[in-house]
Amino acid sequence: VPATRVELTVSCRQLLDRDTFSKSDPLCVLYTQRPGSHQWREFGRTEVIDNSLNPDFLRKFVLDYCFEERQNLRFDLYDVDSKSPDLSKHDFLGQAFCTLGEIVGSAGSRLEKPLTGIPGKKCGTIILIAEELGNCRDVATLQFCANKLDKKDFFGKSDPFMVFYRSNEDGTFTICHKTEVVRNTLNPVWAAFAIPVRALCNGDHDRAIKVEVYDWDRDGSHDFIGEFTTSYRELARGQSHFNVYEVVNPRKKMKKKKYLNSGTVTLLSFAVEAEHTFLDYIRGGTQLNFTVAIDFTASNGNPSQPTSLHYLSPFQLNAYSLALRAVGDIIQDYDSDKMFPALGFGAKVPPDGHVSHEFPLNGDASNPACHGIAGVLEAYQRSLRRVQLYGPTNFAPVVNHVARSAAMVLDGSQYFVLLIITDGVISDMAQTKEAIVNAAKLPMSIIIVGVGQAEFDAMVELDGDDIRISSRGKVAERDIVQFVPFRDYMSGGPGAGLSMAGLAREVLAEIPDQLLSYMKARGIKPPPVPPMPPETP
Fold first, then answer.
1. Residue 47 — φ and ψ, nearest 5°?
2. 3-state SS of the chain: helix, strand, coil percent to 5?
3. 360 with 368: CB under 8 angstroms?
4. Going by C-beta distance under 8 Å and a sequence separation of 6 or more, which residues neighbour residue 49?
5. Which helix (H) or strand (E) is 444 found in, with range?
6. What is the pLDDT of residue 409?
7. Which of 240, 288, 431, 462 fits 334 for a cystine, CB–CB 3.0-4.6 Å?
8. Domain annotation covers residue 465
9. Where's the C2 domain (predicted)?
10. Are 328 and 379 in contact (CB under 8 A)?
């Protein structure tokens, strides 16, 4: 059990400049190791900051801090040159290794380390700050406007944006929010934004919050207009004369006797509500509906040959069965009727041998549901003997099949999860993207488990963690796809110690947040927990 959750903030100073005409565009990637494993696995990425050698990254890493484990961390920095999520396509800027305990145990939980990894070059330094997260679940929604800000641009007015910092115990500040840029105005009205109260003040309502106002410049050298400080307690008073702030530029104030301010910022609205968790919805009765789709295309190899991914050995489960079991065993606990629709795609099916991309594994088109994961495995093995593996590999039909069910229950009482197990060679990329963009509006998530040794570039693209997926210029409103390569969990060859718990954890990790993002977008609150029936004497 993790002792506590810790939020890491990453900054760098004096990074290498890898771009010819502008400064580097840095991105930081965090890797962690599983207990007892030496393999580095990507944990997450910050955002990319354009044209900066001294970035303060806004996106934090939230880690479970286990006092009794040595939690090794590796931070890699890259200069991002294109939209590709593939790190080998970007310039490496250096790396640093440490443990989570090392950061937490440093003075003020602030660790500075030199970046290394490029022989003969000084790569700059990385600054890591850890802060324990309070368990406050409130989210504040704030909106600000400004008046008569200083004009900073030679042509046209300023392009103002604000940066919010919370203060730390040692008097330093940590960035926690950036507004959007409002172009060409000295009287901007910024969009309302929601921020966890934890991020603004970590539960301490009197902690100082510093706000800096800048004029945005394309080359990254934003001009400082001025600053003010406030606190959560003050902001919580809402719109009032208390929440009109003078924006002051200390350097101007020192120089000019008559200097008053560089404009004012006004809080237009303030609201706070408790953030609901995944468990609030599950306790309130939301059911997870689990559908399985299995890839029966010929690229998997002939099922009668031991080299095939579909080979049914009397001694051990094949990769498809293992993946199905690992994920299904966990998800079936959240599904009350334990009936799972199971589909196959990419095979010629009896009686007439036509190619189907959504055939029922149990042979019953009117009701493709199987009883329990055991029932799904049985139907899968029966199908393998009945159908002929063929092609092409089309995902869109099974995505649309589940989307049709999800579109019938939009009230939050049910949430649909589609598990696609595939060898990763996809033929209908454009149609699948369109299906996913449409499904992102519905109460559903898609998990893709890739089996075999293929390059899974297309699957990584569908995952949309780094670049949100789009189709015909329409961007998916939420990220609903999680892709996991099965081979990462096969330790020491097939059938050896499989990290099934690890696979299930990785596969299901994003479902709670994806469910929450649907509920939030639709304004669905969890129903109150039904009362316990009275004890019978």
1. -75, 170
2. 25, 35, 45
3. yes
4. 25, 26, 27, 55, 56, 57
5. strand 444-450
6. 97
7. 288
8. yes
9. 1-115, 122-245
10. no
- Please check whether residues 309 and 453 belong to one and the same domain: yes
Q: Residue 100 carries which side chain, given as an amino acid letter? A: L
Residue 219 corresponds to which tokens in the numbers above? 């080359």
Strand partners, 97: 74
CA distance 396 to 446: 12
Same domain membership, residue 125 and residue 35? yes
Q: What is the pLDDT of residue 350?
A: 92
If you count them, how many residues does the chain have?
537
Global confidence as pTM:
0.64
155 assigned to some structural domain: yes
pLDDT at residue 2 above 50? no
pLDDT digits (tens, 9 = 90+) for 202-238: 878 999 999 999 999 988 899 999 999 999 999 999 9
Distances (CA, A) of 303 to 40, 134, 157, 359, 387: 34, 53, 69, 18, 11
Domain coverage including residue 42: 4-133
**Which residue would you say has higher pLDDT here, 532 or 233?**
233
Cβ-based neighbours of 537, under 8 Å, separated by 6 or more: none
**Helices and strands in the chain, H and E counts:** 12, 28
Same domain for 146 and 254?
A: yes
> How far apart (Å, rounded) are the C-alpha atoms in residues 270 and 272?
7
Task: Kindly state the average pLDDT of the residues 82-108.
Answer: 90
**Would you give the DSSP letter of residue 332?**
G
Residue-averaged pLDDT of the chain: 90
pLDDT, tens digit, 9 for 90 and up, residues 426-466: 999 999 999 999 999 999 999 999 998 888 888 888 987 77
- Domain assignment present for 513: yes
Task: List, in sequence order, every residue forming a beta bridge with 194; answer none if it has no partner.
Answer: 141
Mind listing the pLDDT tens digit for each residue in 3-46?
A: 578 899 999 999 999 877 889 999 999 999 987 778 999 999 99
Q: Checking DSSP bridges between strand 4-13 and strand 173-178, what pairing results, if any?
A: unpaired
492 with 462, same domain?
A: yes
Beta bridge partners of 68: none
| 165 shares its domain with 186 | yes
Instruction: Give me the CATH number covering residue 255.
Output: 2.60.40.150
N-term to C-term CA, the chain: 37
Phi-psi region of 362 (alpha: psi -120 to 50; beta: other; left: phi over 0): alpha
**Distance from C-alpha of 401 to C-alpha of 493, rounded to nearest angstrom:** 35
> Can you tell me the distance from the alpha carbon of 409 to that of 444, in angstroms, rounded to the nearest whole number?
11
Q: Annotate 233-294 with three-state secondary structure.
A: HHHCCCCCHHHEEECECHHHHHHCCCCCCCCEEEEEEEEEEECCCHHHHHHCCCEEEEEEEE
Gap between the Cα atoms of 98 and 320, Å rounded: 37
pLDDT score recorded for residue 496: 40
Count of structural domains within the chain? 3
- The answer to whether 295 touches 336, Cβ cutoff 8 Å, is no
pLDDT band at 535 (very low <50, low <70, confident <90, very high): low
- The token duo for 398 is 């099974």
| pLDDT at residue 64, as a whole number | 87
User: Are residues 261 and 504 in contact, defined by beta-carbon separation less than 8 angstroms?
Assistant: no
Distance of CA 5 to the CA centre of its chain: 17
Same domain, 204 and 238: yes
Residue at 232 is within a domain: yes
The yes-or-no verdict on residue 315 having pLDDT over 70 is yes
Give the C-alpha separation, 379 to 341, whole Å: 11
